[in-house]
Amino acid sequence: MSGHSIRVPDLKAKKARGEKIAALTAYDATMARLLDRAGVDVILVGDSLGMVVLGYENTLAVTLDDMLHHTRAVVRGTERALVVVDMPFLTYQVSVEEAVRNAGRLLQEGGAAAVKLEGGRPVIDVVRRLVDVGIPVMGHLGLQPQSVRQTGYAKSATGRESADRLMEDAIALRDAGAFAVVLESIPDDVARMATQSIDVPTIGIGAGPECDGQILVSYDMLGLFDRFVPSFVHQYAQLSESIVDATRTYVDDVHAGRFPRTLAKT
């Protein structure tokens, strides 16, 4: 594991060398510190925090202030990984000027290294302008959670026409200066073609094994979020059960008078 901090150009270099990129989400300093210690390449402060941390039904209620608050915490806990932050719903769709101001705050006040935003050609002017003023942008195609009211959570790019659109969007994002593109819930063969068509990394989530990297919501990967687990998630641990068991034992010990009398460290 390299000791230096990972920077935006390092990801493109990894793709060129055929090295895979490992990314996970984090929303607080403690989790960020643990993921960073484990050698994760990219930490995404995802607007998924709306569901797994704030308890909302989807990502639409997440505000810029929410993202700033959690980004600052994650940055304080990270030494090596590249910290990318999601731009929440309606912080980049209204106007290019507003998008620049909001993305700038996420870097200047939040301390993130880059922003991520959803969409292809409809947001290309925003991507181009952000890159022009020095704000690195990660794209996001396929299933777009901020469009859930319009599209639901169905797999994306499953037909020829929609697959062609996704390919064109990926190339447009690359041409506008995006340094990487997340591909979410699309067929493996479409992800492979997109990955071969652009010279910047693709990072898959439910998009098969041939992307240049993979990302999961850490709460899903660790088995912490117990309400819904997407079919593409592999749970590397079942921490929700461990936490419930440990807490139940603590509650029993307090109720029975065992803690702290007989169990506390001396």
- How much of the polypeptide forms β-strand, as a percent range? 5-15%
The CATH level-2 architecture of the largest domain is identified as: Alpha-Beta Barrel
Query: Please, what is the average pLDDT?
Result: 94
Overall form: globular
Quaternary assembly: single chain
Order of helices and strands: HEHEHHEHEHEHHEHEEHH
| Unreliable residue stretches | none
Predict the CATH topology of the largest domain. Answer: TIM Barrel
**Text of the CATH class of the largest domain:** Alpha Beta
Number of helices: 11
Fold and architecture overview:
The protein has helices at residues 8-17, 29-37, 49-52, 64-76, 96-108, 124-132, 148-151, 160-176, 188-197, 218-221, 239-256, and strands at residues 21-25, 42-45, 82-86, 114-116, 137-142, 180-184, 202-205, 213-216. The chain is globular, with a radius of gyration of 20 Å. The protein is α/β, with parallel strands linked by helices and 266 residues long. 42% of the residues lie in helices and 14% in strands. The protein starts with 7 loop residues before the first helix and ends in a 10-residue tail after the last helix. The model has no long low-confidence stretch (mean pLDDT 94). Strands 1-2-3-4-5-6-7-8 form an 8-stranded parallel barrel, surrounded by 7 helices.
